[in-house]
Amino acid sequence: MADRSNGSKDPVNPDAAVKDPDDWVTGDEPPTAAQESYLHTLAREAGEEVPEGLTKAEASRRIDELQAETGRGR
If I label 56, which of 7, 37, 40, 64 is the partner at 20 to 30 A Cα–Cα? Predict the structure, then answer.
């Protein structure tokens, strides 16, 4: 039978592969286009501004914060 796991070390817990943005090798790089787009969508819904010059890791943390604030996501 084929392995249909999601690539996580723990197929029972998909969150086991989630790394803290501070531990990302590319965390200091600029946000991806997808992060930028989603961040602006969430900020607009929350009535907030997106700061200039965020890193990929900072954008990820801000997305998490705005998801909790707006009820989107998780």
Answer: 7
